[in-house]
Amino acid sequence: MSNDLWTPYLTPRDAEVLRASGYGARMGFGERPALMIVDVSYNFVGEEPAPILESIKRWRNSCGEEGWAAVKVIRRLAEACRAKGLPVFYSTNTRRPDGFDAGSWRWKNSRELEDNRQDIRGNEIVADIAPQPRDIVIYKTKPSAFFGTPLLSFLLDLKVDSLLVCGVSTSGCVRATVIDAFSNNLRVAAVADGCFDRVQVSHAINLCDMHAKYADVITSGEAHDFVGRLRPGLFDLPKGTL
Predict the structure, then answer these.
(1) Kind of pairing between the strands at 33-38 and 162-168
(2) Nearest to 174 by CA among 200, 193, 197
(3) Where in the sequence is the domain holding 146, given as residue range(s)?
(4) Which residues, in sequence order, are bridge partners of residue 88?
(5) Quick one: how many helices (H) and strands (E) in the chain?
(6) Is 6 a residue whose pLDDT tops 60?
(7) SS3 of 177, please?
(8) Which CATH number characterizes residue 174's domain?
(9) Is residue 219 part of a domain?
(10) Measured between alpha carbons, how far is 96 from 123 in angstroms, rounded to an integer?
């Protein structure tokens, strides 16, 4: 993965520190990967592609057109993973109608409870990449898809050893999920063009930081090449039927 995304934001001193300190080594892919799609719901892209400053008037968390560009990348990668029989996981947020479980989110955003007053379900995963019957959806209330959820137990049951991670926001829920996966000794690859953020510098610098310490930052092309080399039938997936 080229570091062109974040190089413009690094001072010469910072670039030299990263080179000299040994960070950014390639951890490599695992042998039993799953795809993790973090929080790609209408809350984070709006109902249609629109410039971000327009979209956030209605959808305060929207990342605008960049989010919809990543949706196309995620759809293709999810299709490739399903074709090889790899587990595909999604996360999305959940809220009580009265907003009680927003908890500490309320402390940092004055528009937090607007999510409970949308005329469609904002936490619904975007239809373009809607989960298929054999996929697994994780419902969460905090940034990481691991925190307070059964995600890790499902990964252990499937003997997953690594994650390909896409989604939103790069600086928030993607990063939190990547760090928790790393902390549980999973190999992690963050798919740069399948991740997005409302703030461009946050997207770039958090990819830099994850690449330095917690994950390999790769392109979707690299992810497709890796998935294409895997033999099918590695996993005994959910049957996807009642």
Answers:
(1) parallel
(2) 197
(3) 30-131+140-229
(4) 35
(5) 8, 6
(6) yes
(7) helix
(8) 3.40.50.850
(9) yes
(10) 12
